[in-house]
Amino acid sequence: MATCMKAVTEQGSKLSNEEHNLLSVAYKNVVGGRRSAWRVISRTEQKTDTSDQKLQLIKDYREKVESELRSICTAVLESILIKG
Fold first, then answer.
1. What is the largest CA-CA distance in the chain?
2. Which residue of 13, 27, 68, 73 has the fewest C-beta atoms within 10 A of its own C-beta?
3. 55: burial class by Cβ within 10 Å (0-12, 13-18, 19+)?
4. pLDDT tens for residues 10-50?
């Protein structure tokens, strides 16, 4: 749904209220799972007193999720602020 709504924003016309709502819901769903994963990973990272190798794996995964979140948020902001 997010991909479809991004395509709608790229058409260049002003979004209707319904289209704004659909865009919002689409990206909320895309971001929600990653935010939840980030919270769990961060809690695990803070509580982990295991080997440096395991802690590094947790940190790497947290950074990957953060990067995905940043990319998604940047894409939606660009589509509504720059193009819309």
1. 54
2. 13
3. middle
4. 787 888 899 888 988 999 999 999 999 999 999 999 988 77
* Closest listed residue to residue 58, CA positions, set 73, 45, 76: 45
- What is the distance between the alpha carbons of residues 68 and 15, in angstroms, rounded to a whole number? 25
CA distance 18 to 44: 39
Tokens of 58: 């947790």
Range 1-5 average pLDDT? 82
Does the pTM exceed 0.90? no
Q: Yes or no: say if 12 and 83 are a contact pair by the CB < 8 Å rule.
A: yes
Q: Sign of the C-alpha dihedral, residues 15, 18, 24, 30?
A: negative
User: What is the distance between the alpha carbons of residues 79 and 82, in angstroms, rounded to a whole number?
Assistant: 6
What separation in angstroms does the CA of 63 have from each of 17, 34, 56, 80? 35, 12, 10, 26
